[in-house]
User: What shape does this take?
Amino acid sequence: MLDSRILSRVLHRALARGADFAEIYGEERNTGSLFYEDGRLEKVNQGLEKGAGIRVVKNGNTAYVYTNDISEEGLLRGIDTAYHAAAKARDLDEELALRIKEAPFVFSPVRRPEEVEWEEKIRWAKEADRAARSLGEEIRQVTVGIAEVEKKVVIANTEGELVEKEEVRTRAVVNVVACKDGIMQTGYETAGGAAGWEILGEDGLNGLAVKAGDLALRLLEAKPAPAGRMPVVMAAEAGGTMVHEACGHGLEADLVGKGLSVYKDKKGKQVASELVTVIDDATLDKKYGSYVFDDEGVPGQRTILIAKGELKGYMYDRLTAARDGVLSTGNGRRESYQHKPVPRMSNTFIAPGNDRIEEIIRSTPYGLLVKKMGGGQVNTTNGDFVFEVKEGYLIRDGEVAELVRGATISGNGPEALLNVDRVGNDLGFAIGVCGKEGQGVPVADAQPTIRIKELTVGGIVEEETPAIKRIRRR
Assistant: This one.
């Protein structure tokens, strides 16, 4: 996409002007999306975009510009713009030698988006709509979304590194709304990965539609959730939303360096139960947050953040790593060439433990079992969080009891991790697009089934229970 000789000459310009570090991130992105709602194809988009982001660092200050003009002249103008506060020039050779970095590992083959015609994808959406509506007349709305991206990237910098990478990501979402007697409930299911349309498996979108519709219908009959302090069992199928939001962001090095993380100055200290190990791993095959190289050309890595409750380190990009005198962990990520890289999670999860799932439930006299998480908020400076529970069940006398609706869980991230007293031997993933500094990147998060001794559950208490007394609606 970009000739290495052109990249060499442009980077030489930055060094000759006095830059401490300069980088060019060139990107060619093919995208496609489909939105199908209420039996109608509402939108199909396809696009091709090319551009380059240019970063120059001098005396600790960073300038970033981007351009759609990827000619040599356009890139040179970008370098000059980024380096508007240059120091005196240096006498250098006319070119910078670039060496190609070999991929440290490879992922398994994928079914690329162009291998599936749009007519077939539209047929998938229609069939998913019919599958959900066939569950009952209470199904009032079905929406299906498909998104795919295939991009080629070239990264070159003044360290003499040249990286070329290709990435494919696909994602599907089915959302189903059911109504009865004035009550409205929603079920949704997603699938996605750093892969092609093989992620859907044999059931295709129909499997997602049926699961989403079934949950929406069952929630119509569910009782309002109780409220109070109680044990919470978070099933593996809920994914690692809590570890991502209430823990993961606080372990990104830029937030730590700015004093915006509850984990600042906690390295080497106990920040979680000894049963808890937290890992960020970009090398997992076909997971939504996986990559061979990050967006600074650093190989994707497996980084142990918390080991048996002890904080081991943070997630770094090049700049934050240089600030702390460590190596980058390969977590420098950006949404596109229009954005500068910052430390971001990839696939973040709590490692599986040894407990059998049935035993975790059996040893819980009363509590809430969370099988699907919704949206939420977290304050990274103190770790406080609140999350919606999309699918939750009461646990009574060591058995899973009725489905409840309207539950929320709130607490403090570090406190919650310190109060984990059971960790299951399973592991379940969820996917999403994580937002930070105005840009979103694909991520996955995961956890085994875990039990937290006590969290605040919001809802309604209709009678006194073994764990809580009658309280008002929250």
Notes: The radius of gyration is 24 Å. The chain has a mean pLDDT of 92.
